[in-house]
Amino acid sequence: MLATEGKQRGLINLKAEELKNSFDSAMAGLEGVMYGDSSGAITQIPVGSTISSSSGTLNATSFISGVRAMAFTDNQIIQIFPSEGGTARGVATISVNQPETSTLWFSTALPAGTAVGDYIMISGSSGVLGQGVYGTTAWQNSATAGTIAGQNRANFPGRISTPSINLAGGSITASLSQRIEALLGRAMGADNKAKDSGVYLFTEGQSYAQATTTYYNKQINVQPSNDSGNSGKVPDVSKKYFSGTFGSHEVKVSFAQPLGRIDLLLTDTWSIGELVPLQLFKFGDGSTFASVPASGGGWTSGFQFIYEAGFNLANSAPRLGAYVYGASEPTI
After folding, report:
1. Burial of 17 by CB count in 10 Å (0-12 exposed, 13-18 middle, 19+ buried)?
2. What is the helix, strand, coil percentage profile of the chain, to 5?
3. Rg value, the chain, Cα
4. I need a labelling partner for 283 at 20 to 30 A (CA). Which of 28, 201, 308, 327 fits?
5. Whole-number mean pLDDT of the chain?
6. What is the phi/psi pair of residue 213, to 5°?
7. What 3-state class would DSSP assign to 304?
8. Residue among 324, 320, 323 nearest 193 (CA)
């Protein structure tokens, strides 16, 4: 493509740009998996979601709104389970993910019985805990029963569980960071330097809530400068970006992080085991493309490529961390 207008003229390699975009999309999908609980679940359909099957046509045949759409990719085949460890209701194909409205569009009907509380899982998943990637919600769990990575929690009560705070529908407040620090102190001791490696994972909603409760809801006194005092204009006190820290810990905003949840990860205790790096799958003879039948054409009129990856996460000390759940998600 040739840009011929404006000052920034030049050539754009469309194929290279689209390949880069597809890589970014694959990374977004993997991010959703890395927040999983080891069952293959990407997200759970939350209360308040709208589920509509076979109400439209083509790529808008069905939809589910109110879900973490960013954790999915276009043309992804998913399974829907009524519960973890249960029997799958069936499969469906996502035609378009629409993160700005938290909507997944489907080119197929949804499995019969799809309802709020169901789990949307990776295609081919068994739906059983311990059979998928051990993500943050697997390791950061306050349960004292069940297993984690093959270890029975009951044999080590509290030692392989993570401290947690249930906000029960409440909003994030500035003092929440001190509550979390108090839990870390109880678990680690006051002088343990590992807690300094903590990084927060926020949803975009929690980042917005933090800005509202800790900044905008406070009375802000702006001393007019010589310019603003004579301009007659209302001073701009709005901020462009979310806060980069919370309780002096770095904040990472994720559009795939489970709703109502905040995680404090102590990076010193986390590692990743990688069997296969994210790469293009080779179909044979080193080829990363395969011909497929396209609409209205033969086998040579369409092509596909597939990304593959093999990895898992490990946390050497689940007790050294904290998470918050049940936080209210503001309307955006």
Report:
1. exposed
2. 25, 30, 45
3. 23
4. 28
5. 88
6. -80, -30
7. strand
8. 320
